[in-house]
Design a protein that fits this description.
This protein has no helices and 30 strands. The two termini are 36 Å apart. Strands 8, 9, 10, 11, 12, 13, 14 and 15 form an 8-stranded antiparallel sheet that branches. By secondary structure, it is an all-beta fold. A hairpin with a 3-residue loop joins strand 16 and strand 17.
Length: 380
Amino acid sequence: MPAAAPPAMASAGTAPTPASAPPARAPVVPSPISGTPSAGSAAPRPVASPTPPATGRHGGWRLKDSGSTARFRGLAAVSRSTAWVAGTAGTVLRTHDGGRHWSNVSPFGAGGLEFRDIEAFDGRHAVVLAIGEGEASRVFRTDDAGATWTESFRNTDPRAFYDCLTFFDRRHGIALSDPVDGAYRILSTGDGGRSWRVLPTDGMPRAQSGEAAFAASGQCLVSVGSRDAWIATGGAATARVLHTSDRGRTWSVSAAPLPAGDPARGVFALAFRDRAHGLAVGGDFRPDQPSPRAAAVSDDAGATWTTAAAPPKAYRSGVAWLPHSRRLALAVGPSGSDLTFDGGRTWHAFDNGSYDTVDCAADLGCWAAGERGRVARLEP
């Protein structure tokens, strides 16, 4: 989303939760890796801290020292040991030892760019997206763990503003631009991000006035399987979700019951555990504004959405299913993290640290990242 929407800009986003904020009380929420919720008990949530929180027997986020002060809205979890993060000032970091050490593998000369999404195929191969108007929107690819990068796309249309990208497999992927001439623009690759082409827009529904995608977590465009992808939108009268089943050639659209009617409101992130079952989170990113109905669920590939019975209490910018589970998922935002045990119908707060994005790998390696170099891994 362009300059009118702060989450898409380098210096924007909601204010961090201050370290001096009083702890809130919430239900005890064990680690999703090792248990189910304990009914009828309560415990204080940990206060955000620059040092790893004591997780005790219930587990939780364990902060890792990234050695950076960048804000990381791009995150790719490869495993419990390997993850990539991408953020402000052209920063890309990579760990191969569970976050004990981080390598600065930023593309040479990219210090003026704002990375907001990164997709990694493994520990050596990754594609990263820089956002912004005109030539600020670029794509880079590495095949050697970030030792070198090749710029494979540079936007030359001053009206386009790319927000997110996703891959269906190691070869096929798409990237999303905010509307140009009234329609979202889709960039497509069939060679793993080495080259890109703009797809025709005749199969794309018309955008609403003021509608765009939020480059808040790299999750405004997500995919499952070999052909299905979804777009999250906001900033207009109605928050919407768009769905393609042919890798971006044609799209259907549905309304989502999340806050709308303002440039700061809408669906900020999506996650699908299979073609049918999806989660949507968002709200109003301004810290002084409430975000009721900040989450919704779908069981029909995004054709219809139902408001969560007990959504997160505040705006959330990232969401991820836990692998191999039909019910467990995580949501994060600048004011805290939440966990669902019932497929997104009810959410339980378990941490109030500031995170912008979350991602989980097949081996249950779940990572979160955000402001001031914050990176954490979920511990049992």
